[in-house]
Amino acid sequence: MGCGILTLRIGSGHLGALRAQPKVSLLLTMIFLFTYFFYCLTGSCCDSLGSAGSGPMGTGVLVAQDSLRSDFTPSNSLLFDSILGNSLRSDSALGSFQGSDSALRDSLSSGSASSHSLRFGSASRESGISDSALSNPEFVLKDSGFALRDPPALRRALTSGSSLMDRLRPSISQENVGTAEENTVEPVSDPKDSLHRQETPNDPLSFAMKDSVRSDFLRSDSHTREPLRSAPVARTHLLATEDTHIPDSSDSLESHNKDITGHSWAQNGTFPNPSPAPSPGAISTYNSFGTKRFPQAIIVGVKKGGTRALLEFLRVHPDVRALGAEPHFFDRCYDKGLEWYRNLMPRTFEGQITMEKTPSYFVTMEAPKRIYNMSSDTKLIVVVRNPVTRAISDYTQTLSKTPSLPSFQALAFKNTTGPIDTSWSAIRIGIYAKHLDNWLQYFPLSRFLFVNGERLVSDPAGEMGRVQNFLGLKRVITDKHFYFNETKGFPCLKKPEGSSKPRCLGKSKGRPHPNIDTSVLQHLQEFYRPYNQKFYQMTGQNFGWD
Ligand SMILES: Nc1ncnc2c1ncn2[C@@H]1O[C@H](COP(=O)(O)OS(=O)(=O)O)[C@@H](OP(=O)(O)O)[C@H]1O
After folding, report:
1. DSSP string, 96-147
2. Is residue 100 part of a domain?
3. Is 219 found in the same domain as 153?
4. Ligand 1 center to residue 471 CA distance, Å?
């Protein structure tokens, strides 16, 4: 059919001549046709035209078609450099594939396009091209093929050696990144609000319930993200969520959780399976926006210890990039595989630390072994807090979801007044020595940092100094970053340069606790004492809970 183009042109060109000089024209036409037929028979013209496939196409398209055929693999892998490179060399195909480039069109427009591996230019990187890439304004999908709105951009991409995805990603991210407001912080309606946490100095376990109207939390511009704004990093931070054991929608940010693609996360903070499921090598963990790495440090516990505060404070550091939501990989989602896990991580540059926090890891039997198998070098951070206060905090969270919950005392003691019920998770989690013992089967003590949860509240900068040392980070986070918010009754992050928008954690962090009978508290305190002592011994740290 390639020959058909030429035949048609010749034929129509001679129709007029036929009318004017019938005999001469007929003769000339016959001579020409004979010559042409002979020429084709010798193979001099059909090689190129014949190989061009079916349908009328311009030269550039033929070149592209050639490239397509020769480089098209059964898995729809396309050597884009040769396709587009050839096209660039041809005027007519520059930025516009038309006609019968169906293979290319199909591969780009199909739902599975993201699994196609595209090797592009001298960058020779592997990138998954996704639907969002296809909806990028630089691409136009046409019935007859696809075209680039901005061919010079393509030319620049090809000549600069960067990948197509590198070119596409900035516009994707600009459209979809979360705003600074979508963080784990909420607004304080009035910082001078006189609602305070009622904490009896002599009895840190007693909290008044009358603070129930404390909806006084800060939303602000993202101080913690500030250092990242100038960096060419797509803000892939997933927004922080509340503890996921008992979903807490009172943390308004959960409902705002969106990833870079604009997909909402589940309200309870667990992750959807990133779709499509990554097959090894199919989705890039590496591009010029950084690399998706396994976390080098994990906040593994403890639930209600102050893990969210720690993570949010750490995110102030420009060399820390942390997953906002709790992935629960090493306890609940392990069967999804390590690549799934890694793909959740934010991209980091050389020198930056990837982190996540899932407090339930600390009490998960299998977690130490699993983390060890990922990397025995993983640094492990445990935020611990008086186990009695922690148990009440845990109970308070459950109570906020289930108002009909039995009293704390009824749950803490067998038959209400009998022995402590260690089968209740709120009690069991606080036996830190027992859980640590399991971890020490896999990791040496030097791999751990135990953050004092009480001190994280009373001296956040001091505790953050320890954390930064442990992580080998420059001491960037100092007391200049914190102020004590009277309304919230907790330290919050300042906005740089004295801006009026500080950041506090959400309203589910720092909740008022119900009043618990002193005898119950004492009983619990006694129960925990030997375990606490053991824990001090094991860690070489006295947390002063007794
Ligand atoms: N700066 C600051 N702001 C607010 N809250 C703070 C802060 N620092 C520590 N805390 C304490 O953190 C407790 C919640 O712990 P977690 O974040 O580990 O909870 S969770 O396991 O993720 O649900 C939370 O427990 P409750 O007071 O019971 O709500 C707080 O006491």
Report:
1. B--SS-HHHHHHHHSGGGGGSEEE-GGG--EEE--HHHHTSTTEEEETTEEE
2. yes
3. no
4. 22
